[in-house]
TrEMBL record:
Pfam short name (any one): DUF2157
Keywords annotated in UniProt: Membrane, Transmembrane, Transmembrane helix
Protein name according to UniProt: DUF2157 domain-containing protein
Domain spans labelled DUF2157: 13-158
Amino acid sequence: MANFEEQATQMLFDKNHITEEQFEAIRAYRGLNLFSVHNELKFLLYLSILMFTSGIGILIYQNIDTIGHTAILGLLLAVTVTCFYFCFKNHEGFKKEEVLFPNPLYDYLVLTGVILSCTFVGYLQFQYQTFGTHYGLATLFPTVIALFCAYYFDNKSVLSIGITGMAAYLGLSVDPKHVFENEMIENTYLSYIGLAFGLSLLLWVLYVTKINLKKHLNLVYLTFSLHLVSIACIVNLCNDYWPPFGLILGIAAYYFYNLSFQIRSISLFIFTVLYGFIGMNIFFARVIDFINFNDIFEVFIFTTPFYFIGSIIGFIKLIKHFNKNTTDDSI
């Protein structure tokens, strides 16, 4: 990495893009061997918020009989209101473009307030049945809070909470326990809901892009959309009426593949390739099973290791192709 930076600096100097004084200043600065701990500090802040909110949950669970329900709810409400008070006080207000806090610490304060508000509403419903038997409202209410805060404060983490809340309201469970229990596979109706929800998120991205509304949040929607659409299609490829879902997955993979180059998102690119590869293998397996190629079954088994080796090599080449086409080579 250091050699690449030196070569890039030398190239700029040779092409007279920087002066000799600037060239020497850059070399002197790099000679100090300074490095940024920005990402490390952000990770520690995020971890501290998770530990703080988890600690509150554990405190409530272990002392629910001694502290009292009213005291717990009052404490949660007071801390939540305090978080939002400082956030609203130090933010410029809603605008269609991105508006950042003067201090990035407030972004984590927004996240804390939203998580605590979810805890507050959930505890209120569990203890007092505020929404009666309409349990969906207990999910929808904090979801609305999260989506509002995501757009007002331009917070991607809070937006993820809001989208997850919408999925939960529709009956889609996103926790690892339900994923490993194959809940969507056992209930195809949920896969249809997941597919419709994923396509709805994609349509929302197209709409907000057209009206220039918070376009920097689009990657969050696209990530959820890719996962929902792909998983739903892969699940239905294993069912009886599989051909239409193979077509939908192919179109989605093609769209997200090209989109990942446009927005230069390596995560979107990798997941698109993985889902496309899985879907393609299931599709070919269903076709082979339908045509009944029993005569070439032994040949198929023999060539399988070479197929996977070739797939790994192809995946590496795709990564190199992505890096080559998304790297700025202007210098």
